[in-house]
Specification:
Strands 1, 2, 22, 23, 24 and 25 form a six-stranded mixed β-sheet that branches. A five-stranded antiparallel β-sheet has the order 12-13-14-15-17, with no helix packed on it. It has 387 residues and is mainly β. The protein is built from no helices and 28 strands.
Length: 387
């Protein structure tokens, strides 16, 4: 986990498009990206929250597991994991999963902010579920919360906490990790956190309604790039045969983690081999965007997990362990640490997501300084992010 690389991955053919105002070119460049100085400079000395940030950026603690969220009467959940933000009038909402069992408060919670960033409310949006790890935001403004357990479910939840959460078994029952919605082609992509996991896509019968549809699994050769096909999973319920074993020739992915769709490309990570993959939805083609085995020497990024992107097209990759960093990968092939959390080597960074205006980044340290699920800390970083 000490070496990383980023190879540019393209939006090819009919899907060629600006990725946040920049063009990510080339299906797979021959040379790996190299470590360098990021667009914001190197992280400075740790601040009062124990976070090293570039000059001009500041941080605050939004919530701590087991403690009342400031300005509310709500106690924040343990083991905060995957997250996303939603516009809410002139303010916004940040949603966060709880990667603990149902008996320990599994599910998801939300924090509401006004236009100035002041917390105005915090509340539960999903309860009684198990090990909700990552998930994904839908274009119709719901949160897909994924159970990372054998034959786990995806739950569709309301970030505003008004509508009851709905179990979505049509998306398959397996050890779910993350989900990414593709409104351009009408799919929801899904990762599976197994050492021999698969990569799935779900086509709803009606876009915007996840009650029914078709679950498919990616089929490809043994290589790491090239055209792929998809085959329908015969039994999404996964019993008696688990979904990943139902289609012969389905491509194996070693520990699926984060997943994010933008401008024709679905980026997803695999922790077992420290790779970032890119699926070009228009060309139905797969390529390696990042692979530690292709780097000579060491690189700043040590451990791929959740992934998001800024309006400028920079990818932000959170580390599970490593140096407890969020690293960014720029469109000009520079890999650099953006921030580092100090004194929390027993934890991992989870749930990175930008506020709707792109000026604030939210994320959590899942186990904080205690190394326990009850020690989670959710942060906000504010500053001159490139837009």
């Amino acid at each position: 986990m000490e070496r990383r690389t980023f190879l540019r991955t393209a939006v090819i053919g009919s899907s060629a498009a600006a990725f946040g105002g920049t063009l990510w070119r080339g299906a797979a460049f021959a040379d790996p990206a190299q470590p360098g100085t990021g667009p914001y400079g190197a992280p400075q000395a740790a601040n009062g929250n124990g976070i090293q940030l570039p000059s001009g950026f500041s941080s605050r603690i939004v919530a701590r597991s087991g403690q009342t969220v400031t300005g509310t009467s709500y106690s924040w959940h343990s083991a905060p994991d995957g997250g996303a933000t939603y516009a809410d009038g002139t303010g916004w909402i940040y949603v966060s999963n709880a990667e603990v069992s149902s008996g320990s408060g599994g599910g998801a919670s939300a924090v509401r902010f006004d236009s100035s960033g002041t917390v105005t409310a915090a509340y539960r949006i999903l309860s009684g579920t198990n090990n909700n790890c990552a998930g994904g935001k839908t274009p119709w403004n719901t949160w897909l919360s994924c159970e990372e357990v054998t034959r786990g479910y995806v739950y569709e939840t309301d970030p505003w906490g008004v509508k009851a959460a709905v179990q979505r078994p049509a998306l398959g029952r397996f050890k779910h990790e993350a989900a990414a919605s593709d409104p351009d082609h009408g799919y929801v992509y899904l990762t599976e956190d197994e050492s021999d996991g698969r990569f799935y896509r779900f086509r709803p019968t009606t876009w915007g309604n996840l009650a029914s549809g078709t679950l498919q699994v990616l089929v490809a050769g043994t290589g790491t790039s090239g055209p792929v096909t998809w085959e329908t999973v015969p039994d999404p319920d996964g019993s008696p045969t688990q979904t990943r074993y139902q289609v012969s020739g389905a491509k194996v992915f070693n520990g699926g983690e984060g997943c994010f769709y933008a401008a024709g490309t679905c980026w997803f990570t695999t922790k077992g081999d420290n790779r970032v993959w890119a699926y070009d939805a228009g060309a139905s083609s797969l390529s390696l965007a990042y692979d530690d085995s292709l780097v000579s020497g060491s690189a700043p990024l040590t451990g791929v997990d959740n992934v998001t992107r800024s309006a400028s097209g920079d990818l932000y990759v959170a580390e599970d362990g490593g140096n407890m960093e969020i690293c960014l990968i720029t469109p000009d092939d520079t890999v650099a640490p953006f921030l580092r959390i100090t004194g929390q080597s027993g934890s991992e960074i989870t749930g990175p997501s930008f506020s709707p205006d792109g000026t604030r980044l939210y994320f959590s340290s899942q186990r904080g300084t205690s190394g326990s699920s009850s020690g989670g800390i959710t942060y906000e970083v504010k500053g001159p992010f490139r837009t």
